[in-house]
Design a protein that fits this description.
This protein is an alpha/beta fold. The protein has 8 helices and 15 strands. The protein has helices at residues 3-8, 12-34, 64-67, 125-131, 180-188, 259-276, 350-360, 366-369; strands spanning 51-52, 103-108, 141-146, 161-166, 170-175, 209-210, 234-235, 239-242, 247-252, 282-283, 293-298, 310-315, 336-342, 370-375, 380-381. An 8-stranded mixed β-sheet has the order 1-15-14-13-12-9-11-10. A 5-stranded mixed β-sheet has the order 3-2-4-5-8, with helices on one face. A two-stranded antiparallel ribbon has the order 6-7. β2 (103-108), α4 (125-131) and β3 (141-146) form a beta-alpha-beta unit. The longest helix has 23 residues, at 12-34. The protein is globular, with a radius of gyration of 26 Å.
Length: 383
């Protein structure tokens, strides 16, 4: 074939191979773009058996004809009220608009207000969680600073502190910024999550000593165990213990993000206390009696325009409880089964939240107040 003829007949097969390779590369890029990452900032993928609950089906709604009224007191008895100019968004739809989370870590700071972004607090555990370079492998970690007291009154952010890990209801003590990578690897990664079926829950308390991996054999002689060096286990810096409370109420109190949060949290705590004390369920920050309700202030969770935000965590043993007899003395058993996230909560709502949401896992005003949550017993989430 002459050069002229060759120029009139281009190498079709070669062009086709080139086009095929280009198309395959495009497909790979598209697949990579659509494939979820394992980053702690990504929305967690639903575990097998879990589904997104349509609005109205995640938690039962209180039926006054069956459950009774949410408030049985005269309005005059309610002396705790928000300031006159306390206004919030009453129109925007709430349910299903919160990002999912796998685990929730509360860091003890002994404070009720923090820098605008708690992860910016210099030298703190919160900053170390963000910057240490080790991300949880079991889904998104929600991070909150809290008013839980620090050990021995330590005030410096770099001092050893305590964290509360949910939904495992586990206290982990002696946590420092430098130990955060080990905390994530050996405690958070192995902890139950919001989409861990209750039937597969395993103990979450890590061993007191963590063994280092043995060296890789470099020769046939090294395969003989007698030739391997005996490396002692590395002592764990942490102490773990179960949270004694049966229920937890978390109130956003971060005034630096929104003044309404700083105003509402202390007022709601007083009103919750008023209704919990007669039931023998109130627990203050230093009360370690088993059972009862712990109330903690936490940092910004999003949606301050819907203030007040209230998160209720309920343990496995408390799901479906219809009364309070014996609960004050019963130990907090089991993992957290439910988290019910409410918004637009006012002092006059507290009695109904105690009677029905805390004690029975029901919601009085889901259309107006329910933002989301999870129910591990039913395999339902709001995201």
């Amino acid at each position: 074939m002459s050069k002229v003829e060759a120029s009139l007949h281009p190498p079709v097969n070669r062009n086709r191979r080139k086009m095929s390779a280009t198309f395959s590369a495009a497909l790979r890029r598209g697949k990579a773009f659509l494939t979820p990452t394992n980053s702690s900032t990504s929305i967690p993928q639903l575990a097998k058996g879990f589904v997104k609950a349509p609005e109205g089906s995640l938690f039962s709604k209180v039926d006054p004809k069956i459950d009774g009224e949410d408030c049985e007191h005269d309005c005059e008895s309610c002396t705790i009220r928000y300031p006159t100019k306390f206004t919030i968004d009453e129109d925007e739809k709430l349910y299903g608009h919160v990002d999912g989370w796998a685990t929730h870590m509360l860091v003890a700071t002994g404070k009720t207000d923090w820098v605008r972004d708690v992860s910016d607090e210099k030298g703190s555990v919160m900053k170390a969680v963000r910057d240490c370079g080790v991300e949880p492998k079991n889904g998104k970690l929600m991070l909150s600073a809290s008013n839980m007291p620090t050990p021995q009154g330590h005030e410096a952010p770099s001092d050893p502190t305590t964290i509360l890990l949910l939904p495992s209801f586990t206290f982990i003590e002696n946590v420092t910024p430098t130990s955060v990578p080990m905390l994530i690897q050996h405690h958070i990664n192995t902890a139950p999550t919001s989409t861990t079926p209750l039937s597969s829950v395993k103990p979450t308390v890590a061993p007191a000593r963590i063994a280092e991996p043995l060296p890789t054999p470099t020769s046939v002689e090294d395969l003989d165990n007698s030739n391997l060096p005996q490396i002692p286990p590395v002592p764990s810096p942490f102490t773990t213990r179960p949270c004694p409370h049966q229920y937890l109420i978390l109130l956003c109190s971060q005034r630096t993000r929104d003044a309404r949060c700083g105003q509402s949290a202390p007022l709601l705590r007083r009103e919750f206390e008023r209704h919990l004390r007669p039931l023998g369920l109130y627990r203050d920050l230093h009360d370690e009696r088993p059972g009862g309700v712990g109330i903690y202030f936490i940092s910004h969770v999003g949606g301050h325009k819907f203030s007040a935000n209230v998160m209720v965590y309920r343990r496995t043993r408390s799901v479906g409880v219809d009364g309070v007899a014996g609960l004050a003395e019963s130990g907090g058993m089991g993992e957290g089964s439910q988290c019910i996230w409410l918004a637009r909560v006012r002092p006059e709502d507290c009695e109904g939240i105690v009677k029905f949401t805390v004690l029975k896992g029901k919601v009085v005003k889901p259309e107006r107040q329910l933002r989301g949550g999870f129910d591990r017993d039913k395999g339902l989430v709001s995201w």
